[in-house]
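task queued by scheduler; priority normal; single chain, no ligands, no partner chains; default sampling; output format set to structure tokens
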Amino acid sequence: MSSTKHTHARRIRAAAITVGIVLGMTAGAFSSQAHASTIHRKAKTAKTSELANKFAALPEATAEQMTAAARVLIGRYECEFGKTLVIDRNDTNRGYFNLREGKQSWVVKPVLSSTGAVRLEDMKDSILLIQILTKSMLMNVKTSHRLVDGCVHEVQRAAEAELQKHPQTSVFDSAQGAQAATH
């Protein structure tokens, strides 16, 4: 009889282990689905929040901002390494622009600098596009790194060609300018 009890106890233990495994697998499957659902819900909420921020009303543009906006080059910029930037007017907020590079996009505010360059500043202080006469550059403000450089709009390309035909004189080109520069 002890052999029968031993066999019976082994069967009960095997059945208990099997039931435990099945219950564990079932609980794991439901847990994974619940976890995936939570992740999906969080991602959807983040996207909704991002869209709301993109289309949120921004402060009304100042007269200085509107002056700077008139100098922003709208359209496509060809950049080094085959990258492109696209700038278009923001339909929701007058005096602001949408800036796209690859799959990323930002709402930017134009600001004139004392040098005549146009700065397009992201409203969340993460990126900055600097537009000068012959090229533009996109920077990550938080890390102080260039994201894209050598970006050229068709107007900037024409300005560069004109400068090649008719070079500007520099203070360093004259003897007096060279003396002034050394002192």
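post-processing summary
- The chain has a mean pLDDT of 81.
- The longest helix spans residues 2-54.
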